[in-house]
Design a protein that fits this description.
Layout: E1 23-33, E2 37-38, E3 44-45, E4 50-51, E5 56-59, E6 62-63, E7 81-83, H1 87-96, E8 109-113, E9 130-133, E10 142-149, H2 154-160, H3 169-176, E11 181-187, E12 189-191, E13 196-201, H4 209-217, H5 224-231, H6 238-245
Antiparallel strand pairs: 1-4, 1-8, 1-13, 2-3, 5-6, 5-12, 7-11, 9-10, 9-13, 10-11
Length: 248
């Protein structure tokens, strides 16, 4: 198991994770899955996820009990599992005076910080981070790697639009960079509420999702030395690299 330091002395490093790895950072408080159901615009969607009350297997395609209706844009090995901070709902509800509930926007995993460490949010997790969901001594525990942020789509508008007439919340979520992230499965395993969550690898401590969103949404061009470290991240999903190349 890696014993590297979680963060090095890079600009905007989050020193709260500046500990030897593996580091116990959170508890998994909910696991959620959904079935494809009739949705807006005569489409199907499984965006509404419900809590699972028993352990569920996770393989390279995600939770075995979970579904994605639009397999062109959702699911697959590079979008196997979705995690969304609960703070996303707090921010949406505060900004638009709503009461959108947790689970509405398609997340599979919900965590809660431990040991006075920060929550798993876009400012505290990085591309390439590997998390273990289960006891660190258990060689069969599920391991997941962050490979890309989630891009909010029109289904967020349609989902929240069932309850409100607020236009284009998806664009607001995208601008804020609070859409959560997708995991690639590093090691198959079982997942269940109550498991400890460990950060076990952090190869790119500069590569927070917050920083990636800021670069991707930037209207300015950047020097090559700003962008090239991101292009060297092997696990970063290719469409994000395409966006970044255009920023040079």
């Amino acid at each position: 198991m890696s014993t590297a330091i979680a963060n090095t002395a890079t600009p905007n490093a989050h020193t709260d994770f500046n500990h030897p790895l593996p580091l116990h950072i959170a508890t998994l408080i909910e696991v959620r899955a959904g079935k494809a159901m009739p949705f807006a615009r005569e489409a199907m969607s499984a965006i509404d996820k419900a809590p699972i009350s028993a352990p569920v297997a996770v393989d390279f395609m995600g939770l075995t009990t979970d579904e994605q209706a639009d397999r062109k844009h959702h699911g697959g090995p590079l979008k196997a599992v979705h995690q969304l901070p609960c703070a996303t709902y707090t921010k949406i509800n505060a900004a638009f005076d709503l009461n959108v509930r947790v689970g509405t926007l398609g997340e599979n995993l919900i965590t809660e910080a431990v040991n006075d460490l920060p929550e798993m949010e876009e400012s505290s997790v990085c591309i390439g981070d590997v998390f273990q969901y289960g006891e660190i001594e258990n060689a069969a525990s599920l391991q997941l790697r962050i490979v890309q942020p989630r891009r909010p789509c029109y289904k967020i508008n349609d989902q929240i639009g069932q309850f409100t007439k607020v236009p284009n919340i998806a664009a607001w979520v995208s601008k804020q960079g609070i859409a959560g992230w997708y995991f690639q499965v590093v090691r198959d395993g079982m997942v269940d509420a109550g498991l400890p969550v460990y950060l076990v690898e952090r190869p790119y401590p500069f590569a927070t999702l917050e920083a990636l969103w800021q670069l991707a949404n930037s209207k300015e061009k950047h020097d090559a030395e700003v962008i090239e470290p991101w292009l060297a991240i092997e696990c970063l999903e290719e469409s994000w690299k395409s966006v970044l190349r255009k920023k040079i």
